[in-house]
Amino acid sequence: MASTQLEFSSRADHRAWLAAQAALPLGFRVGTSRFEFVPREAPKPARMTLTLIALDEPTTDFAAVFTRNAFPGAPIVVGRARLSSPELGAIIVNNKISNVCAPGGVDAAERICAATAQLLGRKSTEVLPSSTGVIGWTLPVDAILAALPATHAALTATSILPAAEGIVTTDLYPKIRCAEVSGGRIVGIAKGAGMIEPNLATMLVYILTDVAVPRAELRAMLTRVVQPSFNAISIDSDTSTSDTVALVSSGRIPCADLAAFERALRTVCCDLAEDVVRNGEGVRHVIRVHVKNAVTSSLAFALGKAVINAPLFKCAVAGNDANVGRLVQAIGKYVGAHAPDTDLQRLRMWLGGIEIFAGGVFQLDRTKEAALAAHLQHAELYTSAPPQNGVFAPAVDFPPHERCVEIVIDLGSGSAEATVFGGDLTHEYVSENADYRS
Amino acid sequence: MASTQLEFSSRADHRAWLAAQAALPLGFRVGTSRFEFVPREAPKPARMTLTLIALDEPTTDFAAVFTRNAFPGAPIVVGRARLSSPELGAIIVNNKISNVCAPGGVDAAERICAATAQLLGRKSTEVLPSSTGVIGWTLPVDAILAALPATHAALTATSILPAAEGIVTTDLYPKIRCAEVSGGRIVGIAKGAGMIEPNLATMLVYILTDVAVPRAELRAMLTRVVQPSFNAISIDSDTSTSDTVALVSSGRIPCADLAAFERALRTVCCDLAEDVVRNGEGVRHVIRVHVKNAVTSSLAFALGKAVINAPLFKCAVAGNDANVGRLVQAIGKYVGAHAPDTDLQRLRMWLGGIEIFAGGVFQLDRTKEAALAAHLQHAELYTSAPPQNGVFAPAVDFPPHERCVEIVIDLGSGSAEATVFGGDLTHEYVSENADYRS
Description:
The structure is a homodimer.
Chain A: H1 11-21, E1 28-37, E2 46-59, E3 62-66, H2 74-82, E4 88-94, H3 105-120, E5 127-131, H4 141-153, H5 161-166, E6 175-181, E7 184-191, E8 204-212, H6 215-226, E9 233-234, E10 244-254, H7 258-278, E11 286-294, H8 297-308, H9 311-318, H10 324-338, E12 348-351, E13 354-358, E14 361-362, H11 366-379, E15 405-410, E16 416-423, H12 427-435
Parallel strand pairs in A: 4-5, 8-10, 9-16, 11-15
Antiparallel strand pairs in A: 1-2, 2-4, 3-10, 6-7, 7-8, 11-16, 12-13, 12-15, 13-14
Helix pairs in contact in A: 2-3, 3-4, 6-7, 8-10
Keywords (chains A, B): Acyltransferase, Amino-acid biosynthesis, Arginine biosynthesis, Autocatalytic cleavage, Cytoplasm, Multifunctional enzyme, Transferase
GO molecular function, one term (chains A, B): L-glutamate N-acetyltransferase activity
Subunit structure (chains A, B): Heterotetramer of two alpha and two beta chains.
């Protein structure tokens, strides 16, 4: 999925690459500020970063997709209303508290939008709000309003890196992807899947471009590209209440080729989505599942998701254990429950290019078992370090490589296909979500 | 769900209670034998236990339900055929290898049934086979045939405890439940959810009774009682390829009251199902979710399952962290995807009897947060011990108590309800399934 196979030997190496991707498209500025506050529901102080993405001139050309969770955060409620605003002028993002099902949540989001608009000389309906972090807590609105002027004063047109760093929670590193198209740029940043105190992950994605694509085309394209990118990943099968993908064009550069723009947009989204998995909670292996020759693409997609969400298989991958029995279990569970008419006699499966299943039976021997284990070891991002005070922490704060555990599932019964990305299930995941105390 | 709230202070204490439950109903004998063999697919020797459950006289009155996984094990294929046999005379069970999608698997199961039948002077179609363990490996049929005479010679009519011990894999302890009804007994044993070398869990349940219930009623009752018992639990959302629940009556004692028998059968099944969760992979908290006032029981059931299968919430429970935001996330994910018309403004939720959500917003404060954490600590089965050589192992080999994390979800929109049981997600689970090497 990644357009290139990158490798990084150190955090500095990775940061240098990020900086090279980070040039803002024409017509955008970003600024951040960080401050301390005491949550109403918790006794001890916490720190929050406020991130402002501003357009030099408001634009009619913007698109956004939001979580399908039935408990959307207040910023999602406001954001859906913003889609009918004539123009968008800014995006204001806070981390630490997600403003979900908190009393007065929508009013809080609107007050922050209004204050942001005032600083920029805009209407509050031109400001898109986002929040990520603890679910259930209330936003410290006064502290945020107090921090807004400093955030505004920090606006610069040089790099998106400050925003990529400002929106993260427990992400190990910022995520930036870019593309050159039609004489302009597309630059995207992503946050997630990370935790603030043990609490719910959120994926936030902001994609900026100076290429002029009308609102209608922009929204249609975004709807198409999220399916093979952000909708094709799963860290732990939990759906955030705040997921947001926003795409904004400053319209500075005419679009010579809409199809080329959509291809570039799709590449940026797919690479960012893969980055999100690679930096997922405790992920030490990225698992790529390609399902082909299915009767429908929805079946191919669902089977891939069934594999990357099967806890026992995810644990086996974490242990570099090629436990292909669990692959078969996961497929059989889904087919038995949802597609009982599927002829599994036609199923063929490969792991790391090695055939493991055909004709209804496993194709295994001791030699293959050793080769399968070697494939898993080669795809491991880092080896697990012993726990400190019982807590397992990731051993890297950069992505050492982009290799995946490669699974191919051939259903032999149609022509539809799908590719999905997931992670393994590790001690680092449990430590992140059970052991940390705040 | 448990008919009584038991507490055990030691393994000896628990074993004494098991022995008191273990008297066989009239007309049954059990025997086991253990032997060593070298798997065809693995270099080092392994140990297998063979368990034989025999009726003194074959019976027409037996019932069984099997996994819905689309890759059923060979014993499941044979077992489904056995349902149309006029009579059942014995059940033969092996652990260590599950005989799923292995070349010649059905022939292997039939050879073992034939040899068992010959020892008992029966027809092979009167023998129900079961296997549990590694998926993908082939059964050591010759070694099993060689061990059958010793297994047969070990048959005794006194206690079911040898069988309860013989069918386990990595279960921490055997599981037995019984009931007295209509002047006779119902005795059930369960295996699972455990692992043999990191591999797929199987649940095996055998319920024996001397109360005479005709085949048709027996099968209808079993179909009814598995829904609120074994179908209402989840350790890790993975569906085994070998799950089996068999119910056999020796018909020695007339049934005075079919309804009373079904109530007793339901209690035995519900208690065994809860035992399976309590002894699940790395489970340190049993989570009981009661969903009520739902429009349909299927919605109530699915919402409960969505909660007990939400990894982030399971991790929070493992850490005694009352992260109710994750409860809301899990419910919102399911409703958003599958029941979008549900009016969540009517939702009320309690954790440990404490109201946490109502009127669309959380009902939290610092005092409640402390009380919620105390409830989780009180329901913990054991505290996690530091890892030895990086591996987390359970600190107990008996169930210290039967307390659960108690969640009530009131949808306020109907009259249907459901209760489901799940476990937390712990380091012990990951160690069981990723760290152990064979």
